[in-house]
Specification:
Blueprint lengths: L1 E4 L6 H14 L6 E5 L2 E5 L4 E7 L3 H5 L10 E5 L7 H9 L12 E5 L8 H7 L22 H13 L1 H8 L14 E3 L4 H5 L5 E7 L6 E10 L4 E11 L3 H10 L7 E3 L4 H9 L5 E3 L6 H10 L2 E4 L4 H7 L4 E3 L6 E5 L5 H9 L13
Parallel strand pairs: 1-4, 1-5, 5-6, 7-13, 8-11, 10-13, 11-12
Antiparallel strand pairs: 2-3, 3-4, 8-9, 9-10, 14-15
Length: 360
């Protein structure tokens, strides 16, 4: 089996970890050899493997060969991240070839359906009946592995965030209407080449999360002369302690960068400073922070590196809120898909002219 996500670095903390959990849960550890370098799992009795690849290195995907058995099963996790149908076709072609008797080719795509305009809906869910396509919608209500605490997350979401609940909880296709930012595009670019642009500046912002919300680090380059913003990296994980945050920022090579962080977490900011993130500081406070920050960013063209999968998901779903009584759009964004969006505003604080706005 070949397990794929859009970017390779996201596999270890998602699919790889989930499969290790499954091996332990089923009590079959003695039958498996699990390695992290290279990232792979081997079934000892036969030598068959589970392989892991990222779509950010297409040559490694299309040139895969196996020593034992045949490659006949492709699992694409978080398939929503793959915005190009052509990229999927490349993966589809990677497991082509004659199958021995009794085997067949299978591609499994798993995802939350955030946007009804995604190519997967038209291709698999809206397509005429096809014996080669099985399109299923499952939800947390039929997941026997959830405990009471897991179920409570969805029940709370049902009350506090019904839009997310319909998609993440019930599996309904999301309707994206009234995007806050439409001035962006996904583009593969050389970070080093962009850095050579005269007058370009780096911009880093940090939004804290913990249990259910991720901690999000925005990494960008801003060109105020040409009004362009280049988003080149991100950190996006839930359940991170301050020590975890410092470790990941340092490991990514950003410990010496000037980072603007959520001012609501002064203790965390102080702790991160003692852990070696010395140039971190809190965002300023002021009136109308969110909308003024949004107004500033809307004047820029935003180029997003394909590896920033969480930023792409957020900016493609970050919409203006709707009045539940009238159905009209409000002049405030939804309180969702906003972790990296907030971190971006923190990062750009010093470039926004006018009063000292808050970026909370």
């Amino acid at each position: 089996m070949l397990c794929v996500r859009k970017t390779f670095r996201t596999l270890k903390d998602s699919c790889f970890t989930e499969l290790k959990w499954a091996i332990r849960r089923l009590g079959v550890e003695e039958w498996w050899d699990v390695k992290e370098s290279p990232l792979e799992m081997t079934y000892k009795p036969t030598g068959q493997k589970i392989l892991f690849r990222g779509l950010d290195d297409p040559l490694k995907v299309t040139s895969i060969t196996v020593e034992v058995g045949v490659l006949c099963w492709l699992w694409i996790e978080e398939a929503y991240e793959i915005g190009s149908e052509a990229d999927f076709d490349t993966l589809d072609e990677s497991i082509r070839g004659e199958m021995p008797p009794g085997l067949f080719k299978q591609i499994t795509l798993t995802f939350n359906p955030w946007n009804e305009h995604h190519w997967m809906k038209k291709r698999f869910f809206d397509a005429p009946p096809d014996p080669d396509i099985l399109a299923m919608t499952t939800n947390y209500l039929c997941n026997e592995w959830l405990d009471a605490a897991d179920k409570k997350v969805f029940e709370t979401m049902k009350t506090n965030n019904p839009r997310r609940y319909r998609v993440a909880g019930l599996g309904d296709w999301g309707i994206v209407d009234g995007l806050v930012y439409e001035n962006w595009e996904e583009r593969l670019f050389s970070i080093e080449e962009v850095r050579k642009t005269p007058g370009i500046r780096s911009a880093f912002g940090l939004d804290f999360g913990y249990t259910n919300d991720p901690t999000a680090l925005f990494c960008g380059l801003i060109d105020t002369t040409n009004k362009t913003l280049w988003v080149f990296d991100e950190i996006y994980k839930p359940g991170m302690s301050n020590e975890d945050i410092a470790r990941d920022i340092t490991g990514a090579g950003y410990s010496k960068e000037r980072i603007r962080a959520d001012s609501a977490e002064p203790k965390s900011i102080d702790r991160l400073r003692t852990l070696g993130i010395q140039h971190i500081r809190k965002a300023r406070k002021g009136k109308d922070s969110v909308n003024n920050g949004i107004d500033f960013i809307q004047d820029y063209k935003i180029f997003i590196h394909p590896r920033c999968v969480n930023f792409l998901t957020e900016i493609g779903n970050y919409t203006w809120a709707t009045d539940t009584k009238t159905g009209k759009k409000l002049n405030i964004p939804i309180d969702d898909f906003n972790h990296l969006m907030d971190a971006m505003r923190y990062a750009l604080e010093e470039f926004i002219t006018g009063p000292h706005y808050s970026f909370e």
